[in-house]
Amino acid sequence: MAGNQREMERREKRARKDRRNKKILWIIIAVIVLVLIIMKIFEININSVKAHFTDENGNFTLTEGVVDDNFPYNLDSSQNVSVVNINNKLGIMTPNSFTILNSKDAEADYVFEHGYSNPILETAGIYSLIYDQGARSYRLDTVSSAVYEQETENSILCADVSKNGTVAVATTSSEKICDITVYSKSLQKTLHLSTSDGYIVSLALSDNGKKLAAAFLTGENGDLKTSVYIYEVTNGSADANAVELPHGSVIDISFTSNNVLVVGDSYAGVIKNNGKYEEIYAENAISTRSISYTPAGDLILAYNSYSNSTDNIVAYIKPNGKIKNEIKVLGNIKSVSASSSLVSVLTNSEIITFNLSNSEEKGRISTDDSAKSICRMGSEIFIQKQSLIDRSGE
Q1: Residue 148 burial (C-beta neighbours within 10 Å; 0-12, 13-18, 19+)
Q2: In the structure, what pLDDT confidence band is assigned to residue 241 with cuts at 50, 70 and 90?
Q3: pLDDT, tens digit, 9 for 90 and up, residues 42-71
Q4: Within 13 Å, how many C-alpha atoms sit on residue 84's CB side?
Q5: Are the CB atoms for 178 and 170 separated by under 8 Å?
Q6: For a surface tag, which of 118, 211, 218, 390 has the fewest beta carbons within 10 Å of its beta carbon?
Q7: pLDDT class of 3 with cuts at 50, 70, 90
Q8: Half-sphere exposure in the Cβ direction for 215 (13 Å, CA)
Q9: Integer Rg of the chain from CA
């Protein structure tokens, strides 16, 4: 009987220990889940957290001697600088060079001198496309290496790249007005056409590279008119229906899902999958100040109602053209940049961050007129100030 009693006590002890271990395990899991939820809500970048607990040799540490970053990062120019998010790294183009900068420590992961006189940058996914507008050279790169560089027969008007590395290039034409050529990332030609429909001022590829939108500018009775043609790249056909846009200059066209968002200097609209244009803001209803896109392809449009107004609106617009929210901002807007749920607005004196959905102000950072543009990435904001890039977390 005594033996049975001791065995029962041992089993009960093991059972209590197992229950305690399971409880501790569930507490740890709950804490991890809670931390992940908090990081998601406040858009905390995990790389930034890791950086605070990593020494200069890459080892974990809790000491004071943590090497955080090498910001501010010096540039080779202060003018005509483009700073964009490329696969959670900073893509920086200057008139002389292109750099892929690690946003954690400001180390340059990939650098080259492009040698172009009028470089224009387009990005999608891991790809960057730089073309020499008015000349004949362009190149495709990933965030870590070159894919190819080649020359066109005629002068480049505009170009675009998709997330799978497909490249579309519009040039002047030897026979007609313009040529359009589309290449896969392996330089296989998937579409080529010559057209006299007008001068091409903008191109946009769908994410998978299967559709191409081209904005043509034409003159009619002394009046300028812009129309968008949408081509099916996969069938190689030049057939496309023209969708006429409101009067005014086209600033940007972009595929979002199966729709094409169109932003002009005084209007905005969407071309639906059925080929119909629907206005978001009517002609002459707005004066566009700056645009950006969220990682999901939502349009962030900063505008005012007349050109010299200091009372600006930041509109949050879904790919179907529906306005989800409008945020009022006092001050001249120089640049906007958005993450999945936050938008940061650069004015002459500060950077203001808002929640996209409910307009709640999330933070302010004082700056000065030296700040030219911003790029938001998760919980961090990267600021171009003359010939350097600085970082400011919130």
Answers
A1: middle
A2: confident
A3: 444 444 444 444 444 444 444 444 445 689
A4: 24
A5: yes
A6: 118
A7: low
A8: 28
A9: 26
Listed residue (206, 192, 210) closest to 154, CA to CA: 192
Secondary structure element (H or E) that encloses residue 242, with its range: strand 242-244
pLDDT band of residue 302 (cuts 50, 70, 90) is very high
Q: Put residue 90 in one of left, alpha, beta given phi > 0 → left and psi -120 to 50 → alpha.
A: beta
Which residue, 338, 341, 339, 343, is CA-closest to 327? 343
Q: Do 344 and 351 form a contact (C-beta atoms < 8 A)?
A: yes
Per DSSP, helices labelled H in the chain are 2-42, 46-52
The gap between the terminal CA atoms of the chain, to the nearest Å, is 68
Using the predicted structure, report yes or no on whether residue 29 has a pLDDT greater than 50. yes
pLDDT at res. 39: 57
Per-residue pLDDT at 10: 64
Instruction: Find the angle CA(89)-CA(91)-CA(95) to the nearest 5 degrees.
Output: 165
Q: Which residue, 288, 252, 242, 292, is CA-closest to 267? A: 288
pLDDT exceeds 70 at position 312? yes
Name, in order, each residue with C-beta under 8 angstroms of 157's C-beta and a sequence gap of 6 or more. Answer: 133, 170, 171, 172, 178, 199, 200, 201
Residue 359: CA count within 13 A, CB half-sphere: 9
As a whole number of angstroms, the distance between CA 4 and CA 1 comes to 5
Each residue of 97-112: pLDDT tens digit? 999 999 999 999 999 9
d(CA 295, CA 303): 21
